[in-house]
Give the backbone structure.
Amino acid sequence: MRTRPLKVALLGCGVVGSEVARIMTTHADDLTARIGAPVELAGVAVRRPDRVREGIAPELVTTDATALVKRGDIDVVVEVIGGIEPARALITTAFEHGASVVSANKALLAQDGAALHAAAEQHGRDLYYEAAVAGAIPLIRPLRESLAGDKINRVMGIVNGTTNFILDKMDSTGAGYQEALDEATALGYAEADPTADVEGFDAAAKAAILAGIAFHTRVRLDDVHREGMTEVTAADFASAKEMGCTIKLLAICERADDGASVTARVHPAMIPLSHPLASVRGAYNAVFVESDAAGQLMFYGPGAGGSPTASAVLGDLVAVCRNRIGGATGPGESAYAALPVSPMGDVVTRYHISLDVADKPGVLAQVATVFAEHGVSIDTVRQSGKDGEASLVVVTHRASDAALTGTVEALRKLDTVRGVASIMRVEGE
Ligand SMILES: NC(=O)c1ccc[n+]([C@@H]2O[C@H](COP(=O)([O-])OP(=O)(O)OC[C@H]3O[C@@H](n4cnc5c(N)ncnc54)[C@H](OP(=O)(O)O)[C@@H]3O)[C@@H](O)[C@H]2O)c1
């Protein structure tokens, strides 16, 4: 065993960083045995130096993160500040000064992963980020390493705990969106400003990262089609129940049937109760992977929180330290396939459409004609109504999003269609 410790600079000591520091201290002997050398916390960069940081020697704390990563004796930089800057500049500077990097920063990796990987490669260093997607759940490494010999066709997951908590509440109690959000906020599952979660930005960043790794193709945040879940209603859940489904906010990354392109999207969708993702309750995350040889795989666990996320960070830290001692680097970016990312219009799936229509003869035929004219085949229709008003629920067979959009536009123009109450994709069948 080598005795010179590996020096770690911790950038950020908040929810995740404080747990990283705690585990590094409490598990120090085990980490030393697993890595083959001691790891030493060499410095901790924060914004507010005067805050009490339990278990961290005050002399390690600095507000000058740049000076810390430039020291030259740092082996690994752990970036748990979050956001784009200064995290991006600090990571780049870390590579320039010889350190490898472990990060939990989904936003930065989804936006600038390619450039960061290039910087790591240029300097012969590692960039690991298991914690950036689905917290504690081992996902990046299984996709990048365990399944490297397989061909992944689909990655579909619940990758945001806040939205899953809200939707699960709506499902189990019949509550509306606002009521469920208020409860999530009161219990600390939702931030004071929940936009990043409920509008799907957080899940979209994760979808970009997952699609890039699964399909060996660069996928950026801008390539991901994103719809939030704020419009999901109690009525949608009632409809879903009638179909034997529930509603989840899903991140879906797919290879097209002909294998020539990929898509990545985030939106609420109905999934059958028999699908493994339907049983993911509360703030838990899960990702369902389909590949040629392995078939169907499910990864499940806590997708956030200080300690679970720190578990993933520590796993990366051990891997990076081992590489360092062995004089090697782990897998870098794999984007050789360079498949085009198709627009949402090319996505093919099923749809559940709820229409408010006039309750009179011939309406059903009119509606069915519009679907047929746009090449969208109907699977089932359910009609109910009284006093001249009726509702029509149409579930389609698989059709392209573009065809469905055209259908809905034409339906809105029919005199007999008073409104389109909801449109929801149906996945996982
Ligand atoms: N929280 C989770 O459950 C979770 C799960 C998965 C991934 N992540 C990711 O982990 C990262 C960190 O999240 P978090 O929840 O731990 O955030 P957080 O609690 O807000 O902590 C951020 C830390 O960064 C420090 N910081 C902010 N700006 C800085 C600057 N300019 N220079 C130096 N330090 C600075 C803050 O210092 P002060 O302490 O002085 O304010 C704080 O210690 C993010 O990328 C996030 O997306 C978090």
Notes: The longest helix spans residues 306-326. Residues 11-17, 45-48, 51, 65, 80-82, 86, 104-106, 131, 135, 304-305, 309 surround NAP (CB under 6 Å).
